Amino acid sequence: MGYRIYFAGMPTDNAHEYFRHFGIRILDSNPDSPLNKLPPLLRQDLDKYLCTCNDVPKIEIINAIVKGATTVEAVRKETYATMGVGCCTQQVERLIELLCAPEPAKRRRKNKEGS
Ligand code: FES
Predict the structure, then answer these.
(1) Which of 13, 23, 29, 105 could be bridged to 47 by S-S, CB 3.0 to 4.6 A?
(2) Structural domain harbouring 44
(3) Which pTM does this prediction carry?
(4) Is the CB of 84 under 6 A from ligand 1?
(5) pLDDT in tens, 88-97
(6) 34 alpha carbon to ligand 1 midpoint, in Å?
(7) How far is the CA of 17 from the centre of ligand 1 (A)?
(8) Helix, strand, or coil (residue 100)
């Protein structure tokens, strides 16, 4: 059912711990990282289960959204999150909303073009 995402030969949960140990933040150091769209609180505990019913880590859900799963149904199909009691559905919806929001600069540019 579930699968693991590997980074440098380690499951991402271990990789995050490894880099955190050395004070390195691997994902949001990139200015184009989708994680920069999330408030700091939601960038924490990426390796922890967001969907505890099906043991789906938050980072796996974020990766699914970034790769194109832009609805709860699509995230469910990709990761099995929300397939339990559905108690994580609101959190998944919030991640979709934040990660799929247009870039502020693009929004401004679009408004300029429109006016
Ligand atoms: S925590 Fe995801 S369905 Fe229950």
Answers:
(1) 13
(2) 6-102
(3) 0.68
(4) yes
(5) 999 999 999 9
(6) 23
(7) 24
(8) coil
